[in-house]
Design a protein that fits this description.
Elements (H helix, E strand, L loop, with lengths): L7 H5 L3 H52 L18 H13 L4 E8 L6 E9 L8 E9 L4
Antiparallel strand pairs: 1-2, 2-3
């Protein structure tokens, strides 16, 4: 029987491939965890953007309705925790369907010494109970055309 003897240099390198493979697996794991975190953050940002779009669309819809009903603008005012009035009720229900747990405030203020009326619509929401409060505010002026 012949006994193999390895040179000292070769003997010092035994197991290096295993160590390199383990390091590669650890680095791959770190990269995959980072990719997963980016995916979760991008999904949350996409959800926030969708909710902000819904708030913008809803506010613009209400402004469109208000611009065709200039004689009754005061009826559209709504304090944050109040029940919506008759003119806002249908819009408010549609908003609640699109943006759950939305808090709405509508301020209607005639501008002094002009025919314009300032309309401020503030829509607030939370994506989840743990998330921060988001607010979308739209300010516009409505006036009769001459």
């Amino acid at each position: 029987m012949m006994i193999r003897r390895f040179s000292p240099i070769r003997q010092a390198q035994r197991g290096v491939a295993m160590l390199e493979a383990l390091i590669a697996v650890v680095l791959l794991g770190i990269g995959l965890v980072g990719t997963l975190a980016l995916q979760v953050n991008s999904q949350a940002a996409l959800s926030e953007a969708a909710m902000r779009s819904e708030a913008t669309i809803a506010a613009n819809e209400l402004i469109g309705v208000m611009s065709t009903d200039l004689d009754n603008l005061d009826d559209y005012a709504l304090a944050e925790d109040d029940e919506p009035g008759e003119r806002v009720e249908e819009w408010h229900a549609a908003l609640a369907d699109r943006l759950p747990n939305a808090a709405v405030e509508i301020m209607v203020t005639p501008a002094a010494d002009t025919e314009r009326t300032a309309v401020v619509i503030v829509i607030g929401w939370r994506r989840s109970e743990e998330s921060q409060q988001n607010t979308h505010r739209i300010v516009t002026y409505l006036a009769r055309s001459t």
